[in-house]
Amino acid sequence: MSAGPVSSMPVVWSPDTRRHDPKHEVWVGVPTPGTEVSARVDAILDAVAGHPLVEAQPHGAEALHRVHDPELVAFLASVHDRWLAGEYVELVGQDRVVPYFFPTPAMSAGLPLRDAPAVHALVGRFAYDTMTTVGPGTWPAVAAAADCALTAAALVAAGTPAAYALARPPGHHATPAGYGGSCYLNNAALAAQALRDAGRDRVAVVDLDAHHGNGTQAIFWERGDVLYGSLHVDPGTGWFPHVLGYADETGSGGGSGATRNLPLAPGTGDDAWLDAVSALRDWVSDAGCDALVVSLGVDAAAADPESPLEVTEDGYRGAGLLLGGLGLPSVLVQEGGYHLPSLGSLVAANLDGHEQGQVSGTSGERSAGSGPSAPA
Ligand SMILES: [Zn+2]
Asked: What value does the mean pLDDT take over residues 156-167?
């Protein structure tokens, strides 16, 4: 299925994406080993070796400010140096930036808040969880991941049918002015905005990651020119991001109806998962979009430790066929996926499916109960 000319989709990557080392995640107050590790980059590179490799080109802060608050960008670029200038390493041995204090609406109670002068108290203005640490290589990797997405978008804007951005760390949980969920800057949103800026009228973002992309949803919530559709494990069953990702969230203002969430029960496998992909495919098709961004998280796979969904490699290939079959210029952006032994082959299967879908134009009907490529 992947033989011959179907492996022409460029893979955009950067060696700098290996530089972020979360070291640990602080979950329910306990440091646990990080799962968003640099070995993910190499696992994927190995699996997509048949594709042409393109190194990401640097983009300035202006491109990042198209979807992010400049204060978030400046904070991420400088906070680790500020942390090291404090006494956190000497006092408690903590060389990663981790918040302990969150100025939520429950604290401010409507009163005006100023920025905390102490860096360890300021972090909680931007970080919304304790799992997403900032270390010495985090900013170079975050900037490189954004560059991967922007370079892939530039290739597609210039006429390449589809390009894959090997973005790491992932991005879809990053909001206009906040970071969390192992995400710092929203790579998929940057790609969608870049396609708009290159003249595409209406861009669809379809999010295949096991978790709801609350950041992407937030960025485009009030916009009708970028659709956001996601299928993900139902946050109502206790999964991240817990408070967002429900079916009744459909956008507002100019973006009314331009957000669509399809929460899925834990244990959902290929058939129901591909039905949801089909529903989003039809939604995008009916909306008259002229470009597509896929948030390609592969953590919905059965073996993945970070979600209870049970999608197979054939499922991810089938999703690629369905979305590629839309025939739209496409930027595929890496999101989650944490089971190192299968991570690369899941990504490669989706890329193969997408490219085959684009080539054969299989945008037609998906027979009930089984994907066009899912034999079992
Ligand atoms: Zn995820």
From this structure: 98
How confident is the model over 17-61, as pLDDT tens digits? 999 999 999 999 999 999 999 999 999 999 999 999 999 999 999
The b-or-e profile of 194-224 (16+ CB within 10 A means b, else e) is: bbbeeebebbbbbbbbbbbbbbbbbbbbebe
Residue 298's pLDDT is 98
CA neighbor of 14 nearest in space, from 144, 152, 151, 138: 144
DSSP state of 321: H
Of the residues 173, 211, 339, 354, only one is catalytic, namely 173
Rounded distance between C-alpha atoms, residue 42 and residue 111, angstroms: 48
Q: Is the pLDDT of residue 370 over 80?
A: no
User: Does the active-site annotation cover 173?
Assistant: yes
Give the model's pLDDT for residue 7: 81
Q: Which helix (H) or strand (E) holds 84?
A: helix 70-85
pLDDT at 360: 86
Query: Which 3 state secondary structure label does DSSP give 27?
Result: strand
Q: How far is CA 350 from the centre of its chain?
A: 15
Contacts of 49 (CB under 8 A, 6+ apart): none
Q: Are 292 and 349 in contact (CB under 8 A)?
A: no
Residue 230 bridge partners (DSSP): 207, 261
Q: How far is the CA of 311 from the centre of ligand 1 (A)?
A: 13
5 CA to centre of ligand 1 in angstroms: 31
Distance 297 CA to ligand 1 centre (A): 6
Confidence of residue 366 (pLDDT cuts 50, 70, 90): very low
What SS3 state is found at 162? strand
Strands (E), 166-311: 203-207, 226-233, 259-264, 291-296
Instruction: Name the nearest CA neighbour of 241 among 251, 226, 252, 230.
Output: 230
Which tokens go with 150? 């922007």
The confidence band for 273, taking pLDDT boundaries of 50, 70 and 90, is: very high
| pLDDT given for residue 361 in this prediction | 75
* d(C-alpha 306, C-alpha 291), whole Å: 30
Whole-number Å distance, alpha carbon 202 to ligand 1 midpoint, is: 25
Q: Cα(311)–Cα(303) distance, rounded to whole angstroms?
A: 9
Letter for the amino acid at 149? A
